Amino acid sequence: MFKENEINTLRKRFRNFYPVVIDVETAGFNAKTDALLEIAIVTLKMDELGWIKKESLLHFHIIPFTGSSIKKEALEFNKIDPFNPLRSAVSEKEAFKNIITLINKGIKKQNCKKAIIVAHNATFDHNFTMAAIKRSGFKNHPFHPFVTFDTASLSGLVVGQTVLAKACKASGIIFDTNQAHSALYDTLQTANLFCNIVNKWKKLGGWPLKNINYRSKKNNN
């Protein structure tokens, strides 16, 4: 049986994975051709009682990569002007250098093996993250190549909602729709939602797993 202080770690809770909450804003749906415009990440920690909480935050406006496609309808949706000089945008390479450095420090601190992306409709964010890392030339990065934690699926199970705003509200988390579709705001709210779901499962007695001995019943026939 694990000691309490061993159970209450990210490493034990998530099978040696280090969860990192991510949201991206983009200029389209194609991760290979459409520009990444904004990214934010939130790292997580677990306290001595086993409750998961937000820890560190990084947020970057991104310069569209050379030759990238920028869809007008995407900009109308997220209200981003990629060429506004006041954005203080950086290259994908600079952004991910900082992101990878922070995550690697967290992995080492938590004694985990690899980071896992937590996102709402996670396939989208995972695809754009992997594409940007590849373009930036980082051969060794901390992210799992395909496994993700999708808060859309998790909240669909827990509160019956899959839209981020509705899932937050159903979970008792205040959500300001006027701030939505900003990578910074959506990442923070996704982190709040993920922590809420994980902690609720703990409150309900679903974690830590109980050791149950199943005895096979003899057939008396």
Spatially, the strands of the biggest sheet line up as 3-2-1-4-5
Mean pLDDT: 93
Q: Calculate Rg over CA atoms.
A: 19 Å
Number of strands: 5
Helix content: 25-40%
Can you put this structure into words, describing what you see?
The protein has 221 residues and is α/β, with parallel strands linked by helices. 39% of the residues lie in helices and 20% in strands. The chain contains eight helices and five strands. The protein has a five-stranded mixed beta sheet, sandwiched between helices. Helix 6 packs across helix 8.
Keywords:
5-stranded mixed beta sheet; 221 residues; 20% strand; globular; single chain; alpha/beta
Short description:
Helices cover 39% and strands 20% of the residues. By secondary structure, it is α/β, with parallel strands linked by helices. Helix 6 packs across helix 8.
Topology:
Elements: H1 4-7, H2 10-13, E1 17-26, E2 36-46, E3 52-61, H3 72-78, H4 92-110, E4 114-119, H5 122-136, E5 143-150, H6 151-159, H7 164-170, H8 183-203
Parallel strand pairs: 1-4, 4-5
Antiparallel strand pairs: 1-2, 2-3
Helix pairs in contact: 6-8
